[in-house]
């Protein structure tokens, strides 16, 4: 069947404007030779169309860029570390760690009532009474109660994830119920080891209702002891840390030592005292992977990046390259009217990374089927990757920007554009075309 020139033009318009095809698998079908095979009429009609300049060499550049994308899961040693403490607790000598309960053999966790705002507990877990939770008991509970889930770990005020992992542990509510709470329990406060220095204590907290019930299909808050199938290292907060799935990292306290069940009506988090919004769930936003500052004229640009998928989900990533000698859209602070182009959201990887045993997702893991395949993609509260082959540009200075569109059609940096409520700025990278 022969296609007319109009049909070819419509096809190219559709591909360029939507970019919702599997570019990586399909690219060789939309090269110059693909269109020319439909005859001279089609070739003449397509003359000058930007897709024609995206020949096999250009798509090869895109293939190379995609091949260089980081693994989906991060190895424990490769997580970015923003630990606090002088000295850093994970750098203490092993003998000190054993003495302070920072090894699996010596770890104990207290779950007690707040002395100032007491909750009534029938069976608090305390070191003094000899009832504190130890690591062996935690693992025993985990034989029937443990959960695993993927989560990106990120900081409230840093514009890139710290790392992506599959976290495993026992839901905090299982331990809370062991204390047999009776009444006057509204808030769960907790902290980790802090060098026996009150000034270094880093506290966080949750509503007791968030601990007892998981909203909207979000995984439970857990006492975590494994990451990507391996024991949690000391640098990652081991032997046991808190992990709050929907929250930024300041809620997922490392080197967990004590949980205080309180009748206090509000949070007393360290981050709250430092002018942060402590109730912000992780936000949907994206960034470019590092690119060269100089590129050749009229040659398509292969761009790749990552996206953090917040509670609002992720529908698409978009890219906009703006000539620096042209004015920006007027009265458009967040560039809502700019000519953004859709990038391609990459699918699940063949290799998960993260030193995952046998490169297999352990079953059961929340969000994955019995075959170890993701039920939905991209996965909320996790990380995704994207790519785009942008048409070539004439010589000049340009700014490359990228943004996300969430499942509610809201473009980054909305709906929370403020830095203290989750990093949301639209990234801007300057390049030169020569």
In a nutshell, what does this entry contain?
The protein has 434 residues and is of the alpha+beta class. It is 17% helix and 25% strand.
Question: How do the helices and strands line up, and which of them pair or pack?
Answer:
Layout: H1 5-18, H2 23-26, H3 32-36, H4 40-45, H5 56-67, H6 94-99, E1 108-113, E2 120-121, E3 133-134, H7 135-145, E4 147-153, E5 163-171, H8 172-178, E6 181-183, E7 187-192, E8 203-207, H9 208-212, E9 222-227, E10 230-231, E11 241-243, E12 256-262, H10 270-273, E13 285-288, E14 294-295, E15 301-308, E16 316-323, E17 341-342, E18 344-345, E19 383-390, E20 396-405, E21 427-433
Parallel strand pairs: 1-12, 14-21
Antiparallel strand pairs: 1-3, 2-6, 4-5, 5-9, 7-8, 7-12, 9-10, 9-11, 13-15, 15-19, 16-17, 16-20, 18-19, 20-21
Written description of the protein model:
This protein has 434 residues and is of the alpha+beta class. The chain has three domains: 5-53, no CATH class; 84-273, Alpha-Beta Complex (Sulfite Oxidase, Chain A, domain 2), CATH 3.90.420.10; 283-433, Immunoglobulin-like. It has ten helices and 21 strands. The chain has helices spanning 5-18, 23-26, 32-36, 40-45, 56-67, 94-99, 135-145, 172-178, 208-212, 270-273, and strands spanning 108-113, 120-121, 133-134, 147-153, 163-171, 181-183, 187-192, 203-207, 222-227, 230-231, 241-243, 256-262, 285-288, 294-295, 301-308, 316-323, 341-342, 344-345, 383-390, 396-405, 427-433. Strand 9 and strand 10 (230-231) form a beta hairpin. It is elongated. The relative contact order is 0.16.
């Amino acid at each position: 069947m022969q296609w007319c020139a109009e049909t070819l033009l419509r096809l190219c318009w559709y591909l360029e404007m939507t970019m919702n095809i599997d570019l990586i698998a399909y690219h060789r079908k939309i090269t110059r030779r693909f269109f020319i095979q439909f005859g001279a009429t089609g070739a003449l009609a397509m003359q000058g169309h930007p897709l024609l300049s995206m020949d096999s060499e250009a798509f090869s550049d895109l293939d190379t860029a995609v091949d260089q994308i980081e693994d989906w899961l991060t190895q424990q040693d490769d997580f970015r570390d923003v630990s606090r403490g002088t000295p850093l607790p994970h750098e203490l000598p092993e003998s000190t760690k054993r003495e302070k309960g920072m090894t699996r053999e010596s770890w104990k966790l207290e779950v007690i009532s707040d002395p100032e705002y007491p909750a009534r507990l029938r069976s608090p877990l305390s070191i003094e009474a000899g009832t504190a939770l130890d690591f062996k008991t935690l693992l025993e509970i985990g034989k029937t109660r443990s959960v695993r889930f993927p989560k990106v770990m990120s900081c409230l005020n840093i514009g890139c994830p710290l790392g992506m992992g599959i976290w495993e542990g026992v839901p905090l509510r299982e331990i809370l119920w062991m204390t047999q709470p009776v009444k006057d329990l509204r808030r769960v406060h907790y902290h980790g080891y802090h060098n026996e220095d009150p000034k270094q204590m880093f506290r966080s907290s949750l509503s007791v209702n968030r601990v007892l019930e998981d909203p909207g299909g979000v995984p439970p808050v857990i006492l975590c002891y494994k990451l990507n199938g391996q024991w949690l290292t000391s640098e990652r907060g081991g032997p046991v840390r808190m992990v709050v799935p929907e929250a930024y990292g300041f809620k997922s306290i490392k080197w967990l030592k004590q949980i205080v069940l309180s009748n206090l009506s509000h949070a007393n988090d360290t981050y709250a005292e430092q002018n942060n919004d402590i109730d912000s769930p992780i936000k949907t936003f994206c960034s470019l992977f590092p690119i060269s500052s100089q590129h050749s004229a009229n040659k398509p640009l292969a761009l790749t990046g990552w996206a953090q998928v917040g509670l609002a989900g992720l529908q698409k990533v978009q890219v906009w390259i703006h000539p620096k000698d042209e004015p920006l859209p007027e009265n458009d602070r967040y560039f809502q009217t700019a000519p953004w182009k859709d990038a391609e959201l990459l699918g699940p990887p063949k290799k998960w990374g993260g030193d995952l045993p046998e490169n297999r997702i352990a079953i059961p893991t929340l969000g994955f089927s019995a075959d170890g395949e993701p039920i939905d993609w991209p996965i909320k509260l996790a990380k995704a990757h994207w790519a785009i082959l942008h048409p070539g540009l004439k010589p000049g200075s340009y700014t490359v920007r990228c943004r996300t569109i969430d499942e509610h059609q809201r473009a980054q940096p909305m709906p929370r554009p403020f830095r203290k409520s989750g990093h949301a700025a639209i990234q801007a990278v300057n390049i030169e075309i020569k």
